[in-house]
Amino acid sequence: MLAATVLLASFLPVHGVVALGLEWVTVGVIFFLFFLHGAKLSRQAIWAGISHWRLHLLVTAITFVVFPLLGWGLRPVLEPLLTPDLYLGVLFLCTLPATVQSAVTLTAVARGNMPAAICSASGSTLMGIVLTPLLVGLLLSQTATSSDPLQAMGRIALQLLLPFALGHGLRPWISPFLQRHAKRLKGLDQSSILLVVYSAFSASVVAGLWSRIPLLALVALVLVCGLLLALSMGLSAWLARRCGFSKEDEITIVFCGAQKSLVSGVPMAKVLFEPSVMGVIVLPLMIFHPMQLMVSAWVAGRYARHATGPEALAEAAAPTKA
Questions:
Q1: Helix 149-156, helix 262-272: angle, nearest 10
Q2: Measured between alpha carbons, how far is 26 from 197 in angstroms, rounded to an integer?
Q3: What is the pTM for the complete model shown?
Q4: Are 66 and 235 in contact (CB under 8 A)?
């Protein structure tokens, strides 16, 4: 669906008044998305997971320190392979917060620490409102950004944090409605993301997106995204083991630390970058996101099979001691 949306925006971009109207629609859609995210987050899950501070500290370090350092440290390798704008997009990808829904779902499939995953992934989204603009100002060229980090932080807080807080505050009253209509809301949630992606790419196509990206650079971008994903997941698992975390906590650290959020990334890009470069900036994220889902689903399956292997089954079947 994401690929189809990019193709649609490439061949049928919107112009003029229609584009301006779509821009206002996407602002409302983003507000609705984060309102739903806030409403879905239970207070019990927050308190259940927040006490595991060592885990959250490591996940935060991977998301907002290790990832940006990877992008910055690999510059001698990445910059010759990619165009300057695509490399900025890779750096922007490295500054983003973690996903929420997919990280929690994958942790559940792999039989990890679910309360900690909910708390850590949601906290990453909230911290990203502050940390992502600061990292963008630190790592990316100021010529690509449309405002200074402090102004961007305020706009992001208004567009993302405010609806999130409103949704969470109204949760006691709207939670039954959300549970009854969970399937419909999920489809609306996903459709909203596609609309935001279409708007972003449409504006960039009108500004000459594809004429600025050689085919070889696109191929190299896919390889670079694969390299970043492999390094981040490998480092997350290694750090979790070195720090003495349990297998359940390791699973949570891998899926909350090595994922990047499309839902947060595209709205943040709309605030931080000019429309003419935004399509190029979010393109690495568009490639990284489905790649991380496919690879993480396979990794989650391996974790789950290991948890239900012969040794685990034998342990579960053993009689308990008095």
A1: 130
A2: 9
A3: 0.81
A4: yes
Closest CA to 70 of 228, 222, 193: 228
Does the pLDDT at position 288 exceed 70?
yes
Q: What is the pLDDT of residue 146?
A: 52
d(CA 303, CA 299): 6
The CA distances from residue 198 to 98, 171, 202, 264, in Å, are 22, 30, 6, 15
Distance CA 48, CA 116 (A): 7
Closest CA to 64 of 122, 124, 116: 124
**Fold observed for domain 15-304:** Na+/H+ antiporter like fold (1.20.1530)
- Reply yes or no on whether the pLDDT at 312 is more than 50: no
What is the pLDDT at residue 316?
37
Mention every residue, 6+ apart, whose C-beta is less than 8 A from residue 289: 2, 260, 262
Whether residue 293 contacts residue 105, with contact meaning beta carbons closer than 8 Å, is answered with: no
Do residues 113 and 252 lie in contact, with contact meaning Cβ atoms separated by under 8 Å?
yes
The phi and psi torsions of 91 (rounded to 5 degrees) equal -65, -40
Place of tokens 């990890």: 112
How is the chain split into domains, by residue range?
Answer: 15-304
The torsion angle over the Cα atoms of residues 76, 82, 88 and 89, rounded to 10 degrees, is -130
Burial of 24 (C-beta count, 10 Å sphere; 0-12/13-18/19+): exposed
Instruction: Look up residue 270 and give its two tokens.
Output: 């709309």
- 313 pLDDT tier (thresholds 50, 70, 90): very low
Q: For residue 256, how many other CB atoms are within 10 A of its CB?
A: 35
Q: What is the rounded distance in angstroms from the CA atom of residue 22 to the CA atom of residue 268?
A: 17
Block residue for tokens 């929420």: 100
The C-alpha atoms of residue 120 and residue 99 are separated, in whole angstroms, by: 10
